[in-house]
Amino acid sequence: MKYLPRVVDSQLATLLEAMGGVLIEGPRACGKTATGSRLALSSLRFDASPELVRLAELDPVDLLRGPAPRLIDEWQLAPGIWNVIRHEIDARQAPGQFIISGSATPRPDKVRHSGAGRIARMRMRPMALAESGYSSGDVSLAALALGQDKVAGRGSLTYADLAREAVRGGWPGLTEASLGAAVRFNRSYCEDLTAVDVPHATGVRHEPVRLRRLLAALARALATEATLKTLAADVSADGQPSDPGTIRDYLDALTTVFAYEELPAWSVSLRSRSRLRTSPRIHLADPALALAALGTGADRLAHDPAYFGQVFEAMAVRDLRVYAGALDGAVYHYRDNTGLEVDAIVELPDWSWGAAEVKLGSVEVPKAEANLMKLRDQRVDTDKVGEPRFLAVITGAEYAYTLPSGVHVIPLSALSA
Question: φ, ψ for residue 148 (rounded to 5)?
């Protein structure tokens, strides 16, 4: 299968020039091994044989020998190798020695060093539309972050196309697969999460049925601020009680394997007496997992515009996280006690920021424009945090353009890093 360039490719190369090692973290099947292999001159894959895990205990230094950068794949299967890699980096006194990848975070260990100053961490996610070839790339987030005045372009996906790509997901292995094969893959992925991945990663026995019901509850609440109490009630719909504490434990377990990634609330200075809400929004590693958990196909999704709106917002957040990562930025959401909500805030390392509303249909653009302007003009203290670099409405429509207010309207399938 042909390698499709990823947004993190250049980031990985840059980090290897400065650090002894780079840890690539992210959900299973998002492409970590393929990306790391492109720059690695040798490799060790702990999932290839149980004997390698045993050798990591007996003679770990020997396993690290090989041309650098050396890829150490699925390191969490032999977590003791971490400190050995750290000591080897100290001994070699040279950058670019190891690329480490893992699809789970090992259980805490008092003797495991953080790796600070030696190993950089890089988050990898499923592919954004621009990476999988389904975005025209006519509008760049990097250009918007520099204050681009006007945008123009055309999206590459229709409404029906967006539904199909939502069901397929951003998994590199599915770019050439049929939609039916993609559906089976995502359903299998959900089954493996609950029956295999979470128990192996956490070492704690969870109830697979409870976890599957939680995945379905998270799918229904996608891109919302559902509380633990609400999720517990949804999971308990089969008559077996679940308490919020158990739900929190399950969410932590799904976070450990990078399947669950909350969208945190933005913390910012306000000029009004409004109070910020701090609840995160619910997001999975890819919205395709939500659709698989509910057994929803492309046709059914396309005929349910209300839920498709939630899924489309999750797609936009996934893509913005990927593109913002290239700028070392982060993505948040905004909500205050007056009811004003903005779906995505992109914050950059210099504390500059931009805001985006996500609307599947163009009929909602005027309301989204008004929300963005209210955020800028009435809520955020721009004397302290500066004017936004951009305000944008991300849509499922066809054309990109800039409104007289300066708010950009951008099809998700026209956006790129």
Answer: -50, 130
Look up residue 338 and give its amino acid.
T
| 3-class secondary-structure state, position 387 | coil
315 and 206 together in one domain:
yes
Question: For residue 204, what are the domain limits?
Answer: 129-416
3-class DSSP string for 299-366: HHHHCCHHHHHHHHHHHHHHHHHHHHHCCCCEEEEEEECCCCEEEEEEECCCCCEEEEEEECCHHHHH
Instruction: Report how many helices (DSSP H) and strands (DSSP E) the chain contains, helices first.
Output: 18, 14
Task: Determine the Cα–Cα distance for residues 36 and 23; give it in Å rounded to an integer.
Answer: 10
Q: How far is CA 346 from CA 12, 23, 78, 354, 365, in A?
A: 21, 24, 36, 5, 19
Averaged pLDDT, 127-141: 98
Number of domains in the chain: 2
pLDDT for 239: 64
Distance CA 99, CA 386 (A): 38
Q: Is 120 helix (H, G, I), strand (E, B) or coil?
A: strand
Last residue of a domain, one of 123, 153, 182: 123
pLDDT of 243 above 90: no
How many Å apart are CA 344 and CA 320, to the nearest integer?
8
CB half-sphere exposure, 358, CA atoms < 13 A: 23
Q: How far apart are CA 56 and CA 63, in angstroms?
A: 7
Measuring CA to CA, which residue among 167, 161, 176, 220 is closest to residue 411?
161
Q: Is the bond into 108 cis (omega within 30 degrees of 0)? A: no
Rounded Cα distance between 318 and 177, Å, is 21
The model's pTM is 0.95
d(CA 194, CA 233) in angstroms, rounded, equals 19
